[in-house]
Amino acid sequence: xxxxxxxxxxxxxxxxxTSIFVAPDATEAQYRRAIAAxxxxxxxxxxxxxxxxxxxxxxxxxxxxxxxxxxxxxxxxETASRYAEELRESWGTETFExxxxxxxxxxxxxxxxxxxxxLFWARKPGRVxxxxxxxxxxxxxxxxxxxxx
Length: 149
Prior knowledge:
48% of the residues lie in helices and 17% in strands. It is of the alpha+beta class. The chain has one domain (16-123): Vaccinia Virus protein VP39 (Rossmann fold). Helix 2 runs antiparallel to helix 6 (93-111) and helix 5 packs across helix 6. The protein is elongated.
């Protein structure tokens, strides 16, 4: 998928994505819990930056946005719990219980520092065409609390 994104971008174009990954210092037991809660797609930060580089991108950067991930996961869990009756009716009891259980497990793993969320950005090599309001090539994406505002 990243190679397809690379092919679609113009030279100098940027890609920005977020991904959930298992903390590098997680124990084997924590890793298994994370996979059980989130699925096999929960790789590592190093794997994601490596995949971007392997796809041909350069200037690969990553920022930990786990605190925001914890807030949104907590909000999902609390809101789903608050509207349990309506959601059971809408989603069905089995789906509701699965989602709520997964949300609870995810939140616990985030709070333990086992699951992280990263914001990743990189650019396709080549010349960036100059345009009004252009940003530096390696600047953080807008709204990421690190780039220029």
